[in-house]
Amino acid sequence: MTAPISSMIVPALDNAVKSLLSRAGVENPDGDAREILCAVLECDRTQLILRQDDIPEGLCDKAIAMARRRISGEPLQYILGSWSFMGRNYKVGEGVLIPRDDTEVVVTEALKLSEDTPEPVIVDLCAGSGIIAVTLAKELPNATVYAVEKSDAAFSYLTENITLNQAKVNAIHADLQDCVSDFKDGSLDMIVSNPPYIRSAEIADLQQEVQYEPRLALDGGEDGYDFYKMIITLWTPKLKKGGAIAFEIGEGQFDTIAAMLKNAGYTAISGTPDIQNITRAVTAKKGSFS
Asked: Does the N terminus or the C terminus of the chain have fewer Cβ atoms within 10 A?
């Protein structure tokens, strides 16, 4: 057990946390140190830079303890207990997928697809912490948004984040296979999903911090496409003619998913890259004969 450290001024504590993280080989020691100190001191980054005051021993110990958790490989987002996505804050922790910038691509495309629909009806499948559903509900105030999540832990975060962000989202605690019958055929304007898409055999080789995240939210089956097949097969009838589907996808998956959509009668199939030029979202419109 680490002995308590004496009080420090803010810059000294910042340097101590950075040094710990850097020596341990943490990828972004400066950024992680800032996030930890802002959380401990309950301030923003600008306030942190300006502060020169003496920090009580207990808060110093707390910051060092959080740094040691980060060194062990625990995701920073779990340590902090919350994370920002597209300008809004979300509670996160063990049992729910961490919000990632990659998901901004599919959300942005979903918003574009909704521009010409005055009161869209949207379902977010595999909703997780709710970042997609909440963002769509806040950005499209006339929309009716449903969020479907199977996991008990993730559903708890989903409902908490809906309340936190005062979003009009209808949360459904169910497997996406079981609740599809709750929706009438032709009732939806859009289906959006960031489903599990990693191949089962690749889970064990993921980064250490990803291993902390729930397998249920990562494992896409033997080929990584189980959930795409399921959603396209079961949920396509629920879309209106000309309704849209928007998926987040993994690297190298576009061609296969585009073929699935084409075979199911979708048209206007398009891929959108992320900032690393990896195709991260696929969108399509339901054809007349789907």
From this structure: N
